Amino acid sequence: MQAVIIPVTSLEDPALAEFRLNERALSNRAERRDDAGAGRFLAEGDLVVERALDAGCRPVAVLADAGRLPDLVQRLIDGDRVAGGPINVFAGDETVRRMITGLGVPHRIVALFLRPPRPHAIDLLARSRRIVILDGVDNPANVGSIIRNAAALSFDAVITDHSSADPLARRSLRVAMGTAFSLPHARTSDLAELLSAETLESMGVNDLDLIALTPDPDAPAIDELRLNHDRRAVLIGSERNGLSPEVFAAATHRVRIPMAAGVDSLNAASATAIACYLLGR
Fold first, then answer.
1. Alpha-carbon distance 132 to 68, whole Å?
2. Rounded to whole angstroms, how far apart are CA atoms 235 and 169?
């Protein structure tokens, strides 16, 4: 793979059209559900781009600071990645890069990548010991924070339902600082079915505690929880509706994080951080 440096000065340059695409245009619903890898994602900033490269993701185009090309561009020029076809590196000034990111402070580098393959949810559930499971968490910033929390607190995997935000969405990746590339994640179209006793039994998984977080004041406090097994999964629901009734029913334990008077709950990311810290030990 070789890189081709292409200066760009106009905001209307058609070569930048792909960088302007929104999430749905980069990868449609079917592509986001495809475990084999389909569609594209946008990585923003040196750290996220570098972690995508380190994870083996294949870049297809790059937009970088024309005044001082980042070291990552030199990696592409030197061809230290094995991939097919040339990589276009568009070099633009601050105005061009700000237009692309839509942020006040433009990144020195953003890159389009092909979406990589990911594990099947059933396989990831079967082999992992510490899992965060998301049900209807549709805010990309929350999903990014949850992935970063899970990785930092030694969890093995994240599994999302089909309505949760995409871990490879640009905002998720930015908030997670690229940890989605090192923490295995999977997506399922039927989370309740995946967690059902019948499915777990068919997989030979009989040593997994499913721990649902709930604001119910009658639920036991999380720090008083006594688990049956070493393997465990934390179930996190949406901030509006919590866990769906079907997923909540699949839980083997239901716990709350004690709150001060007048406060019923934390946001999904903060609650996950506390749960991962207490349950990951």
1. 40
2. 21
Dihedrals phi, psi of 225, to nearest 5 degrees: -70, 135
| pLDDT tens string 221-273 | 999 999 989 999 999 999 888 999 999 999 999 999 999 988 888 999 999 99
Residues 145 and 55 in one domain: no
Instruction: Judge whether 140 and 164 are in contact, CB under 8 Å.
Output: no
Q: Is the pTM of this model over 0.85?
A: yes
Supply the Cα-derived Rg of the chain in whole angstroms. 21
pLDDT reported for residue 265: 85
- Residue 69: which CATH number? 3.30.1330.30
Q: In what order do the strands lie in the sheet with 185-188?
A: 185-188, 157-161, 130-135, 231-237, 208-213, 253-255
What is the C-alpha separation between 195 and 193, in angstroms, rounded?
5
Question: Has residue 97 got a pLDDT over 90?
Answer: no
User: Domain end: 65, 93, 114, which one?
Assistant: 114
CA distance 249 to 91: 53
DSSP state of 102: -
Q: Are residue 85 and residue 127 in the same domain, yes or no?
A: no
Mean pLDDT, the chain, integer? 90
Query: Which residues constitute the domain of residue 99?
Result: 3-114
- 152 shares a domain with 214: yes
Q: Which helix or strand (DSSP H or E) is residue 125 part of?
A: helix 121-127
Token pair belonging to 259? 């709150």
SS3 category, 99: helix
88: CB partners within 8 A, 6+ apart: 3, 4, 6, 15, 61, 62
pLDDT band at 199 (very low <50, low <70, confident <90, very high): very high
Answer yes or no: is pLDDT of 76 > 80.
Answer: no
